[in-house]
Amino acid sequence: MITAYYNCIIVSDGREQAGKAVLVSGNKIVDVIAEDLIPMDARRRDLGGHYLAPGLIDLQIYGSGGLLFGGKPTVQALERMEDDLIAQGTTGFMATVATNSDEVVEQAIESAKAFRPRSKGVFLGLHLEGPFLNAARKGAHPEQFIKKAVLAEVKNWVRKAEGELKMITIAPELQDSEVLQYLDEQGIIMSCGHSNATYAEAKGFLNDPVQAATHLFNAMPPIHHRDPGLIPAIFEERPYTSIIADGIHVNYAMIKLAKRNLGDKLFFITDAVTNTSEGVYQHVFTGDRYTMPDGTLSGSALTMLMSVQNGVEQADIPLAEAVNMASLYPAELIGAGNHKGKIEKGYYADFVVFDQQFVVNQVSLQGTIQN
Fold it and tell me: In sequence order, which ranges of 150-216 are alpha helices (DSSP H)?
């Protein structure tokens, strides 16, 4: 049976459309039509004039609800994260592990494989942020675990992951070309982050073979007029580039600057963590941010929909474009732009319905309402 979602403002692919209905059958959108053309035999769902947008996609998040997968990577932590994110309107996420011991990385790999058959379809795989970073830009990452990549070790992790390792944040300027070539050949997205690359070095690896950049402005050299560094190279080469839009990790003026330069290659991540007092990463919530016990800024307290709201209200980004930054652009980076990230015929019926105050009203995951 076809279900028709109507009386809404569809926000998709850079546009807002009223007077349209979204027709869903099974797990797919079968059409977007004028409301007066809704089939007589369709089941009708009145959305009360709210926004209907594609399900959001977060490519960098560590934990949720008191369970920090990035520090203690268990199946239970993945289950908690998936359930919490669905309720927030996020229908795709990469569980992220920051620089840690080999034991923790391998535990994350085993947990990801064990969770895969239990996932509701929101888990997109693993994102390793480290340990192959530049200690000069370590941020909250413990230096004792930062190291240069060794091809045999990388191959071992990729083999063990059995396809679950999807993305890695890396400092390319410190790695051997054979490592970068291998990761590229395996189809693993490499993202330049926690890097101290010079302008010339970055121009040599951005887009080929490094497809992305991680949390722009954070853990990278600031722009200097005589030593431009990584950021101007990112602006020129325009790889897909993530940013944390909480006004704390990055001032909103700098988000505006990044948007002007990167356009449809800039996308939101939450980089979100949760309270924890165990392991290497002991995140403490201080009212509007998380820090390490020594006060070092760590992950954010964002949701993806909060990122969209901040983009609109603080960085002057039109709503439809802010939604693209939280759905379509990350979908394109991971090669899913032909079936995720839009409200369009043939796409999965993953969408979030929210009101003018950015409060989630309902979430559809492949055609099934979750709340």
Answer: 151-161, 177-185, 199-205
What size, in residues, is the chain? Answer: 371
Residue 112 three-state SS: helix
* Residue recorded with tokens 């359930």: 83
pTM listed for this prediction: 0.97
Helix axes 304-315, 252-262, angle to 10 degrees: 90
First and final C-alpha spacing in the chain: 20
pLDDT of residue 240: 98
Task: Record the tokens describing residue 265, joined without a space.
Answer: 């290659």
Q: Count the Cβ atoms, other than its own, within 10 Å of residue 184.
A: 15
Q: Is the pLDDT of residue 321 over 70?
A: yes
* pLDDT, tens digit, 9 for 90 and up, residues 253-312: 999 999 999 999 999 999 999 877 677 777 778 888 888 788 788 889 999 999 999 999
Contact assessment for residue 218 and residue 242, using Cβ atoms and an 8 Å cutoff:
no
The residue among 44, 40, 36, 42 whose CA lies nearest residue 18 is 36
* Residue-wise DSSP of 126-162: EEEE-SS--GGG-TTS-GGG-----HHHHHHHHHHHT
DSSP H or E segment with residue 3: strand 3-6
How does DSSP assign 47-84, residue by residue? Answer: -TT-EEEEPEEEEEE-EETTEETTTS--HHHHHHHHHH
How far out from the chain centre does Cα 125 lie? 11
Amino acid at 171: A
Cα dihedral 73, 74, 76, 80, rounded to 10, equals: 10
d(CA 161, CA 223): 37
Q: What's 211's DSSP letter? A: -
Active site residues: 271
* 138: Cβ contacts below 8 Å, ≥ 6 apart: 99, 146, 194, 219
Q: Would you say the C-alpha torsion 178, 184, 188, 193 has a positive or negative sign?
A: positive
Q: Do residues 167 and 189 touch, judged by C-beta distance below 8 A? A: yes
d(CA 329, CA 57): 9
The pLDDT, as a whole number, for residue 10 is 98
d(CA 360, CA 85): 11
Residue 30: how many other CB atoms lie within 10 Å: 15
